[in-house]
Write a structure and sequence with these properties.
about 600 residues; alpha+beta; five-stranded mixed β-sheet; FERM_PH-like_C; actin binding
Length: about 600
């Protein structure tokens, strides 16, 4: 019993535990999973998703699921599991826009609402559920790029940056023989024009263009007008109901605006549209699928309610939302302006930084080049310093040599002057010697003449004496022939005179001989002096020429010229002794 009781208590606990089921909700830009209670209605799940997304404009959206070969929207008033939802775990729902506004700029208040509509409409255009011309496709693609990448920056958005993005319908790509690069170039050309547009503004501009497309916000269903099964298409949108031919979804054959419809009735497969104008015929059409009929009716009711709601005063909630949205937009506008200014300042700062970096790199390059040039200059300076030092040493040496040469020149000049003076004195002495020699020669000649006269006189005197003696002897022999030699007094005076003349002649002869010897001695002495004078003059000239050659060679060395051979004189001083005691001095000029 105790075992049975415990078993029943465990079963009871299991029954009391709440049952849950997994739900996966896919939005246009995210996937979410929830754990839902079994008793939850569609509204509970829908509100949870809206809170999670942050959406307040809930009347445009719904949870869509796939059933068999069609789709259906989750009903908010019924429990989730009581509807024909898939039995998978988790159950997959798509959170999508169920109803579309007539004017997106006026009706879409929240930014998240705009973003979800933008993503859904963009996907419908790319999937070709909404027809779009190539021109409009390129323009819409440029707004989509602006919303995703922000302002176009040529330095950042290089060619090929859109290669991974799906921006154009395949039909448009196949319609023209253009490469991806060509399409990107066209889109980028428009994209560059949207500079300064924020993401929400770009998405709103995208929706404002898209809402003018013929297939925007239209849900199409296959219908027949009568029992003969004439195929037609029924379009339900925010404006009303439209009847299309099967091959044309752009231009309706007939339209029933919501303002002109009095009533829509549904009975199994038959739909009846009663115009407000009673004069107009009632329009009936048939749909073979019950799920489709329910969906048509559901969309008609929802769009008509929104149509009527737009024509009424906004509720307090909507007014608050619009006021908050307006304030938010104003705040964001201010923020964008501040951000734009900051961005501009940042760009200017970055440009200035780039300029400074460029200038810094340039200065670094210049500094590097200057350093290299400085190193080269230092090396050159060192070489030049060495050369300068060598040149200075050479200059000092040359200066020293020049000083020495100058001193030698001065000495030589002084010596030359001295030599010239000595030469002049020597020449004067030589001239005096020549004059003296001439005088001596003249005196010698005169003395010679005088000696000759004296000799002649002496000879004449001797002859006279001899004649006198002979005459005297003759007289003596005649007067006293036999007498010895007596000394007669009468001849005393004559003998005295003769003796006097003889002594005088002797004395004169001795004087002449002495003078002759003195003259010979003086002549020899004069010849010696002339020889010494000749040798001195020759040595002085030779020394002067050597000094001149030394000065010239020093000057050539100072100027860098090669030395020249010394000048060999061809002149000399020749002194010859002429006969008859004549001295001739001859100077041969060079």
């Amino acid at each position: 019993r105790s075992g049975a009781a415990s078993k029943m208590s465990i079963l009871g606990l299991k029954k009391k535990q709440p049952k849950t089921f997994k739900v996966k909700v896919i939005t246009m830009d995210a996937e979410m999973e929830f754990s839902c209670e079994v008793k939850w209605k569609g509204k509970d799940l829908f509100d949870l998703v809206c809170r999670t997304v942050g959406l307040r404009e809930t009347w445009f959206f719904g949870l869509r699921y796939t059933v068999k070969d069609t789709y259906a929207w989750l009903k908010t008033e019924k429990r989730v599991l009581d509807q024909e939802v898939p039995k998978d775990s988790p159950i997959t729902f798509h959170f999508l826009a169920k109803f579309f506004p007539e004017k997106v700029e006026e009706e879409l208040v929240q930014e998240i609402t705009q973003h979800l509509f933008f993503l859904q409409v963009k996907k419908q255009i790319l999937d070709e559920e909404i027809f779009c011309s190539p021109e409009a496709s390129v323009l819409l693609a440029s707004y989509a790029v602006q919303a995703k990448y922000g302002d176009y920056e040529p330095n950042f958005h290089k060619p090929g940056f859109l290669a991974q993005d799906e921006l154009l319908p395949k039909r448009v790509l196949m319609q023209y023989q253009m490469t991806a690069d060509m399409w990107e170039e066209k889109i980028t050309a428009w994209y560059a024009e949207h500079r300064g547009i924020a993401r929400d503004e770009a998405e709103m501009d995208y929706l404002k263009i898209a809402q003018d497309l013929d297939m925007y916000g239209v849900s199409y269903f296959a219908i027949t007008q009568n029992k003969r099964d004439t195929d037609l298409l029924l379009g339900v949108d925010a404006q009303g109901l439209h009847i299309y031919s099967p091959n044309s979804k752009l231009n309706p054959n007939k339209s029933f605006p919501w303002s002109g419809i009095r009533n829509i009735s549904y009975s199994e497969k038959e739909f009846t549209i009663k115009p407000l104008d009673k004069k107009k015929d009632v329009f009936k059409f048939y749909s073979s699928q019950l799920r489709v009929n329910k969906l048509i009716l559901q969309l008609c009711i929802g769009n008509h309610d929104l149509f009527m709601r737009r024509r009424k005063v906004d509720s307090i909630e909507v007014q608050q939302m619009k006021s908050q949205a307006k304030e938010e937009k104003a705040r964001k506008k201010v923020e964008r302006q501040i951000l734009a200014r900051e961005k501009q300042m940042r760009e200017e700062a970055e440009r200035a930084k780039e300029e400074m970096e460029r200038r810094l790199f340039q200065l670094q390059d210049e500094a590097r080049l200057a350093n290299e040039a400085l190193l080269r200059s230092e090396e050159t300076a060192d070489l030049l310093a060495e050369k300068a030092q060598i040149a200075e040493e050479e200059a000092k040496l040359l200066a020293h040599k020049a000083a020495e040469a100058e001193q030698e020149r001065q000495r030589i000049e002084a010596t030359a002057l001295k030599t010239k003076e000595e030469k002049r004195l020597m020449e004067q002495k030589m001239r005096e010697a020549e004059q003296l020699a001439v005088k001596l020669v003249e005196q010698s000649e005169r003395r010679s003449k005088e000696a000759d006269h004296l000799k002649q006189d002496l000879t004449e005197a001797k002859d006279a004496e001899r004649r006198a003696k002979q005459k005297l002897l003759e007289i003596t022999k005649t007067s006293y022939p036999r007498l010895s030699k007596p000394h007669p007094p009468s001849l005393g005076s004559g003998s005295m005179r003769i003796d006097f003349k003889d002594s005088d002649m002797k004395r004169l002869s001795m004087e002449i001989e002495r003078e002759r010897l003195e003259y010979v001695e003086k002549s020899k002495h004069l010849q010696d002096q002339l020889k010494e004078l000749k040798s001195e003059i020759e040595s002085l000239k030779l020394e002067e020429q050597q000094q001149q050659a030394g000065v010239y060679s020093l000057r050539n060395e100072a100027r860098g010229y090669p030395p020249e051979p010394p000048y060999m004189p061809h002149s000399n001083v020749r002194t010859t002794y002429m006969p008859h005691s004549k001295v001739r001095t001859t100077l041969h000029a060079p």
